[in-house]
Design brief:
The structure is a homodimer of 334-residue chains.
Chain A (H helix, E strand, L loop, with lengths): L1 H7 L3 H9 L6 H14 L5 H7 L5 E6 L5 H16 L3 E6 L4 H13 L4 E4 L8 H10 L2 E4 L9 E5 L1 H15 L4 E5 L4 H16 L6 E4 L6 H14 L7 E4 L2 H13 L13 E3 L16 E3 L2 H17 L8 E5 L2 E3 L5
Parallel strand pairs in A: 1-2, 1-3, 3-4, 4-5, 5-11, 6-7, 6-8, 8-9
Antiparallel strand pairs in A: 10-12
Chain A binds a DNA duplex (30 and 30 nucleotides) through helix 2 and helix 4.
Chain lengths: 334, 334
DNA sequence: CCTGTTATTTTACACGCGCAAATTTTCAAT
DNA sequence: ATTGAAAATTTGCGCGTGTAAAATAACAGG
């Protein structure tokens, strides 16, 4: 920048000002600089800029597992929104690893981000570390809530969506059992609780089926468990509500392979429903009846909240929790 | 770092040396520093470090579309490998956007990465810009090749895999037609060419069916096109080889919905095969017969090549192209 | 105990920039 | 032409670190 400014015949800070806001320099200098830019393709070093700016244009996005299409899709939308606003998003995946999540947050601090959108690993996350991070950096939590941490939370309302699905399933056939893995985050817990309550409300005994497995290979865990369940006739109900679509996808695959016809039509002996409206849910066979988490709304609102937070200089006052209602998506599987 | 060093009673550069290599300082000083670290939790600012280091520990990973599970999975493996080696991977997605890809590369340069793993957008990429980038930064290309650009290429051998699949399909039934979108990258082109050649070799006339659509919403594009084709009986063959698994997944969904039974068993009227062994391919119904691109090998070899490149100081000599053979995965759909 | 060599630490400078204060320029009004 | 306020630019300093060269400390050998 020094050399570049010398060539033009102005001081370096003038060039610096130009890059921060071209209208902040006199028209004649602006034109000189722009002319020089054509020739010498100089570009400020973002990382040096970040080191010195009071407020950077960096946005951190942290998700628990990026190879999960749900997070990939949300992250994609968030990134595009940020880019459109002239901000610089950087995306991190904790890869399901708690230590890595903390590492990421520590490095993120050094990026001096204007704000961070964090979908925590959930139950496994180290609450204290995350709390400390949120104190230093304006952070919006999404997808998975941690009480009292972050400036706001944006997610979906499991206590609305799950009862709705239970109700639908009961109205249209046998009451569902609930198929889950060991709860990997608060959502999974809430969904189970919501299921149990809803069943009791309708006068049914909750029936919970748990698949073994701890990692993020949901489909495989569900597939293996479902296969065994179907073969041994171990399902407590011929209607299965899965804790999320990835489990449902694995379940459907197992059912298909066992020759069980899944769906709500005649000749079908099993109904399977999911939750999330995973990008692939409409392409399974049979297509998956599920609850749509509104990707668009969740990602948009998270970003909105973050921008608001940034403008308010890191303080939104009272912590708010925005919960979006799920929409029942009736497809073929239930 | 200044303060921290003062507290300990050494000069700042000594602390700096410690963080680069703890054994490079005297044992007594090392112990003093480590003791102080327990108390004051100081941590060097990575971005300041990067600004000054000759060689950083940064690795750039650029993929064309991260919401595609294939890339998400490859990126995940690459990231984990890098982290295990003590490097700092940063992941970028071009989101299918050519300009964004160039932007990313420009910023990546400023990160002074030790090396970059780049899966280019492909056909749409601006060859010149990417070439310039590769001249400045040690880069390994993967997935999608651009001739003569980058220090090496790691990908899969479409001219081996596609003929193998064509051969298999012909041996077991009707010769396949080829279902594709407008080729979005070199792989798509190569696969079509390989298909045509293989068909001719076996004495068949190539039959190519193209679906309309340009973006990365492959499943939907395939679904829409397949539905129309099936309803209007427009398929030139009852065996369909899809250019990739995502198209196949969309195709299967359409077939299922139209009541067409897909598979190689009795009562099936359509066979569908894919290519890539997408993470979901084994969970479709019917499960998808496809070609496995060896994720493990491709990601591992790419990383190996990159490390080699870094050690050789950015010059591997002759540009090499490593092509992995695909494995035929016989599942139920064909 | 002295000397020469090597291991370690310190000094001085560099990286690429933003920011506040001081200075200069501009321009309208007298 | 003079004045004065506002706009633009420049000066000087700071950010948090790496690195080469100079200075010091440690150590082995006589």
């Amino acid at each position: 920048m020094e050399e570049f400014a010398a060539i033009i015949g102005v001081s370096r800070p003038t060039v610096s000002k130009f890059f921060q806001d071209p209208t902040s320099v006199r028209k004649s200098t602006r034109e000189k600089i722009e002319a020089a830019l054509e020739q010498y393709d100089y570009q400020p070093n973002i990382f040096a800029v970040n080191q010195n700016r009071r407020m950077t244009k960096n946005i951190g996005i942290v998700v628990p597992y990026l190879a999960d299409p749900f997070f990939a899709e949300i992250a994609r939308r968030i990134e595009l929104r940020c880019i459109a606003e002239g901000l610089r998003p950087t995306l991190f995946s904790a890869h399901g690893d708690q230590e890595l999540e903390i590492d990421i947050l520590n490095n993120l601090k050094l990026l001096k981000p204007a704000g961070v959108l964090l979908a925590p690993l959930g139950r496994r996350s180290e609450r204290k570390e995350i709390a400390r991070f949120c104190q230093d950096v304006p952070t919006i939590l999404f997808d998975s809530n941690i009480e009292d941490i972050g400036a706001a939370f944006v997610g979906s309302d499991n206590f609305q969506s799950v009862p709705m699905m239970v109700d639908y399933l009961c109205r249209t056939g046998e009451a569902p059992c609930f198929f889950e893995m060991a709860p990997i985050n608060p959502n999974a817990n809430k969904r189970r609780t919501a299921y149990s309550r809803a069943m009791q409300q309708l006068g049914h005994e909750p029936m919970i089926v748990r698949a073994d497995g701890e990692d993020w290979d949901f489909e495989k865990v569900a597939y293996d468990a479902a296969k065994k369940l179907i073969e041994t006739d171990g399902l407590p109900s011929a209607t299965v509500l899965c804790s999320n679509d990835r489990l449902a996808i694995g379940f459907l695959a197992a059912a298909g392979e066992c020759g069980v016809r899944v769906g709500h039509g005649p000749g079908c002996t099993l109904r399977v429903a999911g939750h999330d409206d995973h990008p692939h849910a409409r392409f399974t066979y049979p297509s998956l009846t599920t609850i749509a988490q509104d990707y668009e709304s969740i990602s948009n609102r998270s970003v909105d909240k973050l921008f608001e937070l940034i403008e308010q200089n890191g303080d939104l006052g009272e912590r708010t929790e925005v919960l979006f209602e799920g929409r029942l998506i009736m497809r073929s599987s239930a």
